[in-house]
């Protein structure tokens, strides 16, 4: 009953707001005439100050629209300048902060702490909240953070601004506000197009490939959406329902495979999970998504027992090459060098006997890489491993030549890994991993990994 | 195409989560078996600590569900105890805070300020954010604040907890996340029922009365909704479209009136605006609602020129009675006493001559009350006046016997007032009011008000 | 995602059509100027002919709008005249029909039969189909049939027009085009209002009563809707989920009852089924509705085993009174007279002993009435019995004082009956009933009914 | 508010119906056990008879499901046999028909006509209506007609069965039941896929091409949908908004063109209109679609003044070639032969002077072909011309080399034509065309056409 949705977004064609902005941004004249301090329509700092002024209290939405328009038209240099201004000019009022510190030190109490917390809040946080009043405000704020992230490498001093973006986004993209949606072949094309654009693990090669991943009855896809970013998934996961523990993504994505009846599936294989919004980096989404999808699949398909990933090992290839190149490395056994020497040309086309030799050489190294090669903080070097182990999964099985795509061969000589989510052990695994970096793994894998001391990177 | 909305809320029947919670809350045994510190299912503090623990990182949603269940079953005393615990135990870690203060004082910088801000954040804020992971989490948090507000009168020391609720709600109920919806006779009954329950200004006397306010073509109603509180309006406003400046709510709500063609309307009368969520007290909503509705009405009905309220003056009656009782009041002129003496019994039934005398006595006092009677901070004593003047409206006209309902007669001897929103002057009015308490008013009204110095209450 | 419903009804504000109709209906001038035969805008017959003309082929929708407008403004007398015109002037072309008959008789074949069938179709059928091109055409055609039905009593000769309405509606309201919808407390108020208006069995006493029937978790309501009559249910059924075979509608509708968990329900009681559109009289809907609801309930609540009605016996009271009045009736036993004599005043307030005597007298008569009292065609006199028995239900149990409402006491001295839908026997029951009027009944009931020969009415 | 659509289709997972059908179709045993005449599950005729039997009255939906299942599994031969059975066995009951004829002849009256009409209705019509009770019944009936149409060429005697399909579909796909929907880039992919599949005029070359036709702001697409065929458009039209009368489809579909602001468009070009359901051949849809789209576009974009097509002339090439080949044709002027002789190889690449000569030769022949070359019944030979002229359009302009695609070159040597819909003249044009085959055309075109007598084909 479409008639029941007379719900119009508050920004549908707001005519006189539109005129105001136009008059403002088009001709750069003073805002609303009566103002004593004329503001150039492209002066981002001036607009930001106005948003935080008394006028912003009553005309926040209009001013936010004006700011967004100006930001969209700003050059890269103007945006970069504005980011620095955010750091320097839109921190807290230091006089008030010092007074709050003094009051706290004089008498530490819940009240003085509350005041201290408030006084320490940078003014840019309130600025961001008011920018969000505008149409597409959330979207633009996420983009602004992307722009900031582009600068952080060269200008790490801007980090505190990034902290404020993160603080806000953590609150706004709280799991309670995310909507899980099933994505399939009857999903609007503009959303599906986003999948093609954002797929990060196994490239989607156009619409026919996408159809093969969404339309068959034994395939599922789910994404998190946010009410304010309706047509933009935040993150999505692609799932294959199977009756076995899948070892090869090539087989999963084969063109001519016969789909199975999903009711007979015993195993859900999460073969790709992709973030869509770089501006939300660091905001926890994937963790929640996997658990929710496990939950929903189990409800709908009670026969499902195994929830595993089929994951890339993105750092394995580079690590292996580095190892063999390092002249003085003590770890580099002769076999390691030998193995890498073999991995040349079209080696997957070698005969079965030779492939078997390679397999026997590669698997222990893969296990070693995943289980023993760590960063200084004790976490694995491999980023995908960090993600799933941090979520409470365990390392389950290595798959030789699981991904023969050029990307897969380059990243990890085709090696893939299954992580497994055992419902009863997720918490225990997570806790052990978080406390002391303990990695849950199948005994066979642990045995395979060379019992050397951990390598630290 | 309903099939296209296979969007299932993430909490639809999550079976194994349900079991976990049941096992937890039903039998009070330790959570998930492997725990070394058993938690009673009704121990709110224990659950809250667990939510903030390492386990909460991975099982936040489950623990949040358990907490909500426990909170729902808790007695008033248990809840009150928990509120005090929130104050005492869930502030920031004071050691970390002191270190952050020291670091800031040693070297004030954006970085040390960021750390200080983070260190000063009470742990209960993160607790609230994680509680929000659960189904109906937002709703329950709003209710929790209601419970806290019930305690604040007796225990003002709990104020810092309220500050944290406010901080969070200001961010979550940001205008950018609110959805304006038109409410009419084809709106679901459960939402309409909420209108009947929450109408604060002119009671809705059952469904037939509601129908008279929603169904006619010259009536409108709009509300703000939040994605997480879908069936609960946050605030709503009732509007009558007319061809004149309405002076009497009795006429607006008359049973037998003939509706007009909305396309001919020149005036939109906002005759009632009601907040629905006590737990959102202090979160700015009405300001945005009125402006958005003005915007949308103007777009759809270009002939509309006047946007006025027809508002009660809730404090006028009590003020007048107090005045006449105060023995030593210098302000109390003989006429004032005379007027009040007349306002006895069924005085509205007096003949026109006598009514006219009362009118001539009452209007100047009403104007005086609205324009001159102030609080210590220079704001008007009347709360409705504070709301509309703070939004940038002006006092437009007084209406003698505009509301003859028992409530209207008791509150203000039937006197009502129109505030007017002049699009071009809203900002100026707001600014002048905010800066120095200047009240925008029609000259006639200002003349009517006795030119005495302001009364301060 | 509301944006995905850009589906606008084709009649949303069609501006130039609007102008045309206005020019036509407002001033009665000729249609479109170039016409040589001017048509008065209120001349129903003229408009109908024009719809069937060449012009109607290309401008059918516009002309249909004009016709509907004229029909709405027509007086009762004008409408009645038009109905007679439909009979007399809008039958088939008799010359063509006679030729088709001749051709058929000369050479009976599929081809000549097809031509005969086409030739025998009254022109009003095509007229009705073209009227349906207009906005709200279907609704108005249903209303037109209502108007016709009002005339049929006095003018039975109009029957053939009614046959054509029926023929069309049978095709358009084919079960395949009906949508079953669950109706509950979150259904739009305008649809719920229709329930209050149309409830035919147990009056709904306002919104609070309606809420008691829809909102509790152990209540259900379902209706059939048609795409073209979106806000108008065609028929609806109210269901109570219970753990016993309900014997009293008063208990089912009690204000203070405690709802049960629907998952524990064993029995679905269909306590009211109401048609909403008098203009669809004779179109089979209830039969499909009951079966579909049984189907859906069983799917959602697997514990449900019994599907019974709690039905009125509308003709019982009148029959009983007639019986006792009939001087020469041989059937009228002394006890019958005695019973009726007792049913005076507030007899339900008599003491239990006396009530028991009445019960023992009434039940056999009720059983006799339902099972043995028939029309000439062998079907039961009681209309509700005819409906459920025709659907394949069986008579299950009589309920003494099941309905103490004034209507229930008047109709049947409070007696009610359960019909039971046994899934495995519906077909057999229907077939036996349809073939030879055999009524399926519980043995106890059959025994109770006096073994007299059938009474025929 | 998706929650408000708890509307479940009545066929969602109807478990016990499913079992029944399975037991029936899986093992071919008798239906429901108690039957005395066992029916093989794949015996289409037996199932059809059962649907029309007494049992069908009460179990129509179940039996219809069984029939559809059997039909889907039937071989082509079995289906063909069944079509013949429909003709031979499912006509009317001839005894009853003869009686009705006799009664009519004895006393012609509305009543005897009604009975005659009813008696002449083939039993297959009721059969089709009851098949429609089943899930996807409408879809399958449309497919059944497709299968029948495949036979008609060889077995024209089956025509009367086709008449019955048409009769039903005309009623069911009545314009009043069709829903106009805007189709754009946010439409579900499965519907967009149908566009690619069904586009009949200018092939859509994959998803990128489709995106170019739907996503730009100056493009529109509309389709008719039917409630029972939700994901299947019945017909759709593609529209380009322009500021000039488009003469070349290549320019309209160019990859690199710059879209214009739709608000500035003066002209809507209907450059493709495609039927999607072969089984609905002969049911009037396109006529209504074009008019509705004109209506809606004019409402939304008031500046639009011209509504034209850019249409192929599918028969022109073949006609021209036939002409030149016909030895004895008197019409074949030397220039004609000359022209065709030039149209060899890559002639569009000739220099401008030569092209101009071809243009001057081709345009008069094109005009002649469209205006003068007729069928025996006086209608143009060209099918697209028949469609638009029958709708009341006029021939507006010929476009030399308007379509350089291989198909366009083959069909009509690239020649295209604009038909124009003048709102004020549609009726007049239609009427003149319908009455006596008069073709509305621009004077320039008429002059261009050789003033020969009409050619009849």
UniProtKB/TrEMBL annotation, chains A, B, C, D:
<dbReference type="Pfam" id="PF17408">
    <property type="entry name" value="MCD_N"/>
</dbReference>
<dbReference type="InterPro" id="IPR035372">
    <property type="entry name" value="MCD_N"/>
</dbReference>
<protein>
    <submittedName>
        <fullName>Malonyl-CoA decarboxylase</fullName>
    </submittedName>
</protein>
<feature type="domain" description="Malonyl-CoA decarboxylase C-terminal">
    <location>
        <begin position="176"/>
        <end position="421"/>
    </location>
</feature>
<dbReference type="Pfam" id="PF05292">
    <property type="entry name" value="MCD"/>
</dbReference>
<dbReference type="InterPro" id="IPR038917">
    <property type="entry name" value="Malonyl_CoA_deC"/>
</dbReference>
<dbReference type="InterPro" id="IPR042303">
    <property type="entry name" value="Malonyl_CoA_deC_C_sf"/>
</dbReference>
<feature type="domain" description="Malonyl-CoA decarboxylase N-terminal">
    <location>
        <begin position="90"/>
        <end position="173"/>
    </location>
</feature>
<dbReference type="InterPro" id="IPR007956">
    <property type="entry name" value="Malonyl_CoA_deC_C"/>
</dbReference>
<dbReference type="InterPro" id="IPR038351">
    <property type="entry name" value="MCD_N_sf"/>
</dbReference>
């Amino acid at each position: 009953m479409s008639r029941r949705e007379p719900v119009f977004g508050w920004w549908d064609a707001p005519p006189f707001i539109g005129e105001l902005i136009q008059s403002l941004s088009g001709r750069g004249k003073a805002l609303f005439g009566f103002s004593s301090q004329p503001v150039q329509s492209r002066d981002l700092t001036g607009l930001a100050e106005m948003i935080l002024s008394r006028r912003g209290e009553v005309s926040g939405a209009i001013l936010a629209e004006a700011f967004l328009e100006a930001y969209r038209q700003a050059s890269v240099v103007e945006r970069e300048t504005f980011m620095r201004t955010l750091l320097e000019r839109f921190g807290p009022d230091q006089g008030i902060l010092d007074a709050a510190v003094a009051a706290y030190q004089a008498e530490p109490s819940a009240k003085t702490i509350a005041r201290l917390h408030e006084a320490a809040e940078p003014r840019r946080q309130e600025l961001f909240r008011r920018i969000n009043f505008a149409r597409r405000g959330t979207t633009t704020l996420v983009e602004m953070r992307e722009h900031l992230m582009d600068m952080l490498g060269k200008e790490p001093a801007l980090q505190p601004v990034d902290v404020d973006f993160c603080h806000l986004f953590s609150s706004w993209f709280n799991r309670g506000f995310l909507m899980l949606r099933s994505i399939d072949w009857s999903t609007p094309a503009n959303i599906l197009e986003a999948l093609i654009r954002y797929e990060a693990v196994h490239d989607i090669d156009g619409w026919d490939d996408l159809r093969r991943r969404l339309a068959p009855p034994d395939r599922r896809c789910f994404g998190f959406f946010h009410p304010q970013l309706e047509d933009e998934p935040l993150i999505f996961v692609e799932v294959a329902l199977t009756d076995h523990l899948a070892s090869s993504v090539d087989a999963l994505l084969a063109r001519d495979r016969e789909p199975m009846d999903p009711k007979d599936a015993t195993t859900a294989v999460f073969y790709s999970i992709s973030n869509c919004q770089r501006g939300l980096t660091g905001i926890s989404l994937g963790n929640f998504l996997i658990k929710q999808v496990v939950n929903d699949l189990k409800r709908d398909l009670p026969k499902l027992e195994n929830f595993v990933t089929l994951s890339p090992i993105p750092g394995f290839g580079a690590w292996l090459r580095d190892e063999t190149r390092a002249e003085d490395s003590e770890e580099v056994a002769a076999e390691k060098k030998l193995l890498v020497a073999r991995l040349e040309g079209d080696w997957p086309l070698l005969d079965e006997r030779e492939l078997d030799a390679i397999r026997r050489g590669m698997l222990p190294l893969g296990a070693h890489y995943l289980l023993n090669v760590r960063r200084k903080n004790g976490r694995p070097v491999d980023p995908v491993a960090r993600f799933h182990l941090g979520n409470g999964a365990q390392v389950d099985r290595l798959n030789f030549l699981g991904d023969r795509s050029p990307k897969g061969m380059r990243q990890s000589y085709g090696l893939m890994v299954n992580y497994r989510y055992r419902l009863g052990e997720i918490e225990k695994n997570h806790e052990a991993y978080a406390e002391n970096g303990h990695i849950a793994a199948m005994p066979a894998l642990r045995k395979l990994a060379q019992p050397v001391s951990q390598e630290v990177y």
